[in-house]
Specification:
By secondary structure, the protein is mainly beta. The protein is built from 1 helix and 10 strands. Keywords: Biotin.
């Protein structure tokens, strides 16, 4: 058996795959029981990796920080606006990729940032 880690839509799954030789006489099946077993294995909490703590949210493009919408220690939900980044005369809302608590904000309003610079740490 080989072990693999697969990421689908942001969720990480751990799967085991058995390699079959060409001489194996295996008939594919898709019984309801097999499907239910597979679904329950995917949905089980043991197979889903926990979100990483200290997740850094980086600037996707160079620009200037127009405003901060959060403060250190604040709890945020996935999709909540963290700050506004102006780039090429457009305002870009930078949102939280996951729920968490703001542990650090290494930027200030009116600060110029480059692509990849850390804006907020969850």
């Amino acid at each position: 058996m080989k072990q693999y880690e697969i990421q689908v839509n942001g969720k990480v799954y751990h799967v085991s795959v058995k390699e079959l030789s060409e001489s194996s006489d295996v008939t594919p099946t898709t019984s309801q029981e097999t499907i239910k077993e597979a679904e329950s294995a995917v949905a089980s909490p043991e197979t889903v990796a926990k979100p990483a703590s200290n997740r850094e949210v980086a600037a996707p493009i160079p620009g200037t920080i127009l405003s901060l919408a959060v403060k250190k220690g604040q709890s945020v939900k996935a999709g909540e606006v963290l700050c506004v980044l102006e780039a090429m005369k457009m305002e870009n809302e930078i949102v939280a990729p996951q729920s968490g608590i703001i542990s650090s904000i290494p930027i200030q309003v009116n600060q110029a940032v480059e692509a990849g610079d850390v804006l907020v740490v969850l």
